[in-house]
Amino acid sequence: MADAAGRLTKLAEEVLGTPLPVRIRAWDRSESGPPGAPVLVIRHRRALRRLLFKPGELGLARGWVAGDLDIEGDLYEALDLLAGLLWERAASTKAPRAAALRALARPELRAAARELLALAGAPVPPTPPAEEVRRRRGPLHTLRRDKEAISHHYDVGNDFYALVLGPSMVYSCAYWESPTASLEDAQRDKLDLICRKLALKEGQRLLDVGCGWGSMVLHAAREYGVRAVGITLSEEQATFARKRIAEAGLADRIEIRVQDYREIKDEPFDAISSIGMAEHVGRARYAEYASALYALLRPGGRLLNHQIARRPVADEETYRVDDFIDRYVFPDGELAPVGRTVAQLEEAGFEVRDVEGIREHYALTLRQWVANLEKHWDEAARLTSPGRARVWRLYMAASALSFERNRIGVNQVLAVRTPDSGTSDVGLRERRWG
Q1: Whether the Cβ atoms of residue 321 and residue 384 lie closer than 8 Å to each other
Q2: Are the C-beta atoms of 229 and 206 separated by less than 8 Å?
Q3: Which of 159, 275, 294, 433 is the most exposed place for a label (fewest CB within 10 A)?
Q4: 271 DSSP β-pair partners
Q5: Cβ-count burial of 127 within 10 angstroms (0-12 exposed, 13-18 middle, 19+ buried)?
Q6: Rg of the chain over all Cα atoms, to the nearest angstrom
Q7: Confidence band (pLDDT; 50, 70, 90) for 154?
Q8: Averaged pLDDT, 225-238
Q9: What whole-number distance in Å separates Cα of residue 100 and Cα of residue 367?
């Protein structure tokens, strides 16, 4: 088994058809690959078995979460090199990103597959990490299944999220006036931008769909004098938000509910904010989501829908959520192209007045979150689990690169329930937003 790294490098280059851009360090301490490059550390042969039994992204994810795989050096550089290699190959073959690993099934690579099997050791499938969501049953996006999915992502401990998000406790893209601004200032500026886009005024009634830890409703009530209802499916978020609101002396102006948007019956609202929530709705339910929010608004009321978008694909029916994201991060989450989101809001009756793309802002935000996590790594792993902390580090770093490379984006869509009179109350040059 001597020089496992050299054998793996040779196998990888044979499968990929190009030199490997990172070094490999194997469990036998052998190393191979370009000097000075980030190092892919394979701590245990079990990582290879994970790939053999689940070729592709899920096998890699399991190895990472379990600690069988690691990166030594600049994580962003390593992910950029590897993602770029796999992404470009996938684009050229019109196959999933993990096409390079599935290529081992080709007849001309059977010898490489046998070599990999010999390196992997006992042909027994390793148990998936405990942090993985097991196979789910039943139709997508029922009330019960959505609540379970939200709980998986958000009910991992408020103290953990406080380490990552910082004092703002805002878990969505910040709005950066300058790259040198603080994360807290950028999050405050984002909340204030949304309030101005919604043209909030004292005494109005605001609904915040997917309110998180209550930051939006707190800002709107404190700075704009509104009465607010925030809804979430996370019990832990609701408990935390109610405590913050009580401490701020705003319990008479803000109500936090553990409630689905489909369960709200006390309309109308003057304005609705939905910040980083619509990604959980799913394409099968998006028309229902848009229609529900339209019905909850008074005529003339505004919706600000802040949502991550993916690039469109030639055949939308072939779109599938990445295995890593689905199993470890956002179960049942789905992204849509921004054009489809705008179309469905219009189909529900909304008049779309503004679309602002801010993907570079999310890259900056995610890099700050990763830095916070790395700074408090030992405590974060203790508060959740080492595997869970590894999930968050990988998904946030990889997402930052995806925003930077325009693989995904994020948009604020301002829409109005314009009355029959056609009077939208949107100023002629309102994009200055106050």
Answers
A1: no
A2: yes
A3: 159
A4: 206, 302
A5: exposed
A6: 23
A7: low
A8: 95
A9: 28
Residue 23 CA to residue 16 CA, distance in Å, equals 15
DSSP H or E segment with residue 237: helix 235-247
What residues are paired with 356 via a beta bridge? 412
What are the φ/ψ torsions at residue 428 (nearest 5 degrees)? -65, -35
What percent helix, strand, coil does the chain show, rounded to 5? 50, 15, 35
Q: Are 24 and 32 in contact (CB under 8 A)?
A: yes
Phi then psi dihedrals of residue 139, to 5 deg: -65, 150
3-state secondary structure 113-174: HHHHHHHHCCCCCCCCCCCCCCCCCCCCCCHHHHHHHHHHHHCCCHHHHHHHHCCCCCCCCC
Q: What is the pLDDT of residue 87?
A: 52
- Residue 357's CB is within 10 A of a number of other CB atoms, namely 13
The answer to whether 139 and 75 have CB atoms below 8 angstroms apart is no
pLDDT digits (tens, 9 = 90+) for 180-213: 999 999 999 999 999 999 999 999 999 999 999 9
Which residue from 15, 10, 64 is spatially nearest to 32, judged by alpha carbons? 10
298 vs 164: CA distance, rounded Å: 37
Confidence label for 103 from pLDDT (cuts 50, 70 and 90): low
Contact 16, 32 (CB under 8 A): no
Digit-coded pLDDT (tens) for 108-123: 566 777 787 888 887 7
